[in-house]
Design a protein that fits this description.
With about 575 residues, the chain is of the alpha+beta class. The protein has 2 domains: about 210 residues, no CATH class; about 260 residues, Endonuclease/exonuclease/phosphatase (Deoxyribonuclease I, Chain A), CATH 3.60.10.10. Helices cover about 40% and strands about 15% of the residues. A hairpin with an 8-residue loop joins β3 and β4.
């Protein structure tokens, strides 16, 4: 990689500050961005249309500098910043083509992988298209550009696992290495003599490129997953599509939640043995406290939401769940941490046994699964069936508690219950928050996790909002100032538009993937999420899997979606 140099040794006013700035900063930037883009476009047009004869722009003058001098270094940085522009444009255009192609082919990849692949391919395309300098060839430019961006991508993926301070130091080093690789590759392909000064100049350009490029990402914000569609979207029969919208009407949703009374009128149904499902009639199912699927399909509007929980075939549910999570990798003894959250809707031991095959496919996708509306019996059964450990809070009178299912990779050192969260503003029988402090045995990193299930919106949004605010405030004030970890669960408020969780923000917590509006509950709205504090690594691969949208599962498994993300590190 070389910048577009045109030296002028006889600049009469070269000692003036504005001339130094022009010839060492502005012109190198423009030569490697606007000038190169224009000249490349004109060359391509002239090649296609022999009558066009578009004239190229002569590169702007740059001061002649001594290798390794301050001006030489500044020119390299400015040239690298300029070169970033066409590479970034090429990478973005490639990404726009690559992502839908990968989705159409049903390929498995996360945002980081797609971004890296797009940028490498885009760099290769631009390297070939750009007009060569001197004895360079288009092939050498293309291969060297791809090699350099492969170094950028691989190095940055490794740097993302480091602490923030170390990452800041590593990023320019990775850039220098990538730029140097570009120059060396180009010289080797074209069989040119390797020059240390040229390598250093290219390395300086790469340093600028890799340092600045993260400020202009080519992929979507928050590293949200755009590829790896883990389920085929299905419209559930008679569901209110407006309530599950990417741009939700929160006021309308709030009224829907206010009118819902399923939580307050809950009666524990009696799950049969899973092998007995085929022998049950519709009357048998209703006598056990459930709704038969065929009866549920006849209901409309509010009657649909107020109906008893359906009882789907457990084997069918397991088969459908298997399809929806098949492409999600299982948690492993090494690599990134897979974090999950799932309101399991009145999980007890009977429900855990009934949907045993489904849970055996869900739980192993996570190292740490936050669970709500669970009791100890239900978590104990799933833990037994999956080989996980479990930790459960006390349950309220409706059988609702919170807890964790924990992969053996994580060693739990301490368990704490925040019981005051369950008795706020004179409202009894809510759910406590439960905390575990743990060590990742793969990395020896220590962290904490707290699962919550805040007051529902039933009873009036304004009144219950104050309760949730007070619950958040109590919890936030109980935590040590240097708390490091995750708070997750069912917050029973629209996390993309709420005041209820302000105490957490005030204490330094941040909502992961704050710009996402996907519904995590059957009636609509983003009620579930992850708040992080003291963890430097950026969460990745956010995925909402709404099992309830599948007409063969419905809310029989849960009225909430399984929500997943990954952390490269707990530092």
């Amino acid at each position: 990689m070389k910048d577009k140099l045109v030296f002028n040794d006889n600049i009469g006013n070269k000692n003036k500050p504005e001339s130094w700035l022009k010839n060492n900063v502005i012109n190198p930037f423009l030569n490697n961005s606007a000038v190169e883009i224009y000249n490349t476009a004109s060359t391509l047009i002239n090649d296609v249309d022999k009558q066009a004869k578009i004239k190229e722009i002569k590169p702007l003058e740059q001061s002649s500098t001594k290798a390794y001098s301050a001006s030489w270094f500044v020119q390299g940085l400015s040239a690298g910043a300029g070169a970033m522009v066409p590479y970034l444009i090429a990478g973005k255009l490639t990404d726009m083509a690559l992502t839908p192609t990968a989705q159409a082919l049903d390929l498995t990849a996360n945002a980081s992988q797609i971004a890296n692949l797009s940028q490498i391919a885009g760099a290769g395309i631009w390297g070939y298209a750009a007009k060569p300098i001197g004895n360079e060839s288009r092939l050498a430019n293309s291969l060297s550009s791809m090699a350099g961006f492969a170094v950028f991508g691989a190095g940055n993926d490794l740097a993302n696992k480091l602490s923030l301070t170390t990452k800041i130091i590593a990023t320019p080093i990775i850039g220098f290495a990538g730029g140097s690789v570009m120059n060396i590759t180009s010289d080797l392909v074209d069989k040119q003599k390797i020059n240390l000064s040229d390598i250093a100049k290219a390395g300086t350009m790469g340093l600028a490129m890799n340092t600045l490029m993260p400020l202009l990402p080519i992929h979507s914000e928050n590293n949200e997953v755009k590829v790896n569609p883990t389920y085929e979207t299905k419209a559930m029969a008679n569901i209110n599509d407006n309530a599950i919208s990417e741009t939700p009407d929160h006021s309308a949703l709030a009224k829907l939640y206010e009118r819902s009374s399923a939580d307050n009128n809950y009666v524990s149904p009696q799950y049969p043995h899973p092998d007995d499902f085929g022998t049950l009639t519709s009357t048998d199912i209703q006598n056990r406290g459930f709704a038969a699927l065929e009866e549920l399909s006849k209901l409309q509007g509010e009657d649909f939401y107020k109906a008893p929980r359906p009882l789907p075939n457990p084997d069918t549910v397991a088969n459908e769940v298997g399809k929806l999570v098949a492409r999600i990798p299982n948690a492993s003894d090494t690599g990134s941490l897979k974090i999950g959250e799932f309101n399991m809707e009145f999980l007890d031991a009977d429900k855990a046994r009934y949907f045993q095959k489904a849970y055996q496919q869900i739980v192993p996708k996570t190292h740490l699964l936050f669970g709500e509306e669970v009791n100890e019996g239900g978590l104990a059964q799933i833990a037994k069936d999956t080989g996980y450990n479990y930790y459960a809070s006390r349950a309220n009178s409706r059988g609702q508690g919170v807890g964790f299912l924990v992969n053996p990779r994580l060693e739990v050192n301490k368990v704490t219950s925040y019981d005051n969260v369950a008795t706020v503003d004179g409202i009894p029988d809510e759910r406590p928050a439960l905390r575990i402090d743990f060590t990742d045995k793969a990395t020896n990193e220590k962290s904490s996790a707290i699962v919550v299930h805040l007051k529902s919106m039933r009873g009036g949004v304004e009144r219950t909002s104050q309760v949730r605010f007070d619950q958040s405030n109590l919890l936030a004030n109980d935590l040590e100032p240097d708390f490091k970890g995750i708070i997750s669960g069912d917050f029973n408020t629209f996390l993309d538009n709420t005041h209820d969780t302000k105490p957490l923000y005030d204490k330094g917590f941040k909502l992961a993937f704050s710009g996402d509006h996907q519904s995590t509950q059957q009636m609509g709205g983003r009620l579930d999420g992850f708040f992080l504090k003291g963890i430097d690594t950026t969460p990745q691969n956010y995925l909402v899997t709404p099992f309830f949208k599948d007409p063969l599962i419905t809310r029989g498994l849960s009225d909430h979606a399984l929500v997943l993300m990954e952390l490269n590190s707990l530092k």
